[in-house]
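Researcher: I need the complex structure. Ligand is pyridoxal-5'-phosphate. Inputs:
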Amino acid sequence: MKAASIVGNGEICHAVERRIAADLGAKHVFLTTSGTHALELAMAGLGLGRGDEVIVPSFTFVSTATCVLRQGATPVFADVRARDLNIDPADVARRITRRTKAVIVVHYAGVPCDMDAIRAATAGRGIRVVEDAAHAVGGTYGRTPMGLLGEAGCFSFHATKNVTCGEGGALVTGSDEVARRAELYREKGTNRAAFLRGETDRYTWVSDGSSFVLSDLLAAVLAEQWKKRDEIHRKRALMHRRYMDALAGLESSGACALPSAPRRSTPAYHIFHVLLPDLKTRDRCLKSLREAGVEASFHYIPLHNSPFGRKTLGWRERLSVTENVADRILRLPLHPGLSGRDVDFVCGALSRALGRR
Ligand SMILES: Cc1ncc(COP(=O)(O)O)c(C=O)c1O
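Model: Output:
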């Protein structure tokens, strides 16, 4: 392998970016060192600054909010809907002020947000919509891939994600302005990318920036994973269906609620979760599933209720749906190595924990 092919933003990265762009129909793709950095790059690409507000769900991973802080702007937390655990467009509309510059939606578990309602809430107000599509590789809303539904989309290729290279991410955008800023920011604030294209004979410092370029070593891993994404998606979809069928009886007896997705969409099947009646039942089921050897889990501690949210950001308001679902959610294993028998075993263990079998 040539020495040049292990650098960041090298030939292999460029080939993978072109592949992703062609497969998704995206205008600009920037591979990054993580999904977190893709989000930070998106915020830099929007040109946010001090005094600007960005509405984000509280029920999400921290990076959805820290990317806003990185630009000196303020995250404003919105509630989610119980039906899909995605940001509630009505609550977004209530939180819009003169300072609101963007909304970050998270397609939780790979289920698309209600983008039509989000667009209706933000239309004509100069508010840009950014997708945290960390869970959403391989899914669509209508016919459009998630990640291409707003001004910018941010994927994660972390080890836990559907398509992975260990640590990695990508910013996808159709906006030339976002792309122009992101290209400079990702390369430490230099015009190295233009230099690599032969557009200038040297490169120099031209903007604010950081180092978010993926190594070609990881891009080579990503290239192979990306080829397998349809197969990965098919396997995940099959196991998701099996969970839905196996747990339908529990849902109709009121013992749990199963996830749902909007019509005309294809989820990415990143996470399978159920909502149990209350915190006590959830914790009891979690314990007994773990005792049975099942890697069940829960998340998130809502960001508005976290130590940083409360002490540093000074958030006091309650977000009732977010707090309620965070207490009741139970995540069950979902990955392409899972067999139908594994799923049946998990569902049997859950039924027993709920006293149903
Ligand atoms: C919703 C969401 N956004 C962003 C991220 C950050 O991605 P990464 O771990 O690649 O930085 C994650 C990671 O778990 C996530 O779940």
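Model: Summary of the prediction. The mean pLDDT is 96.
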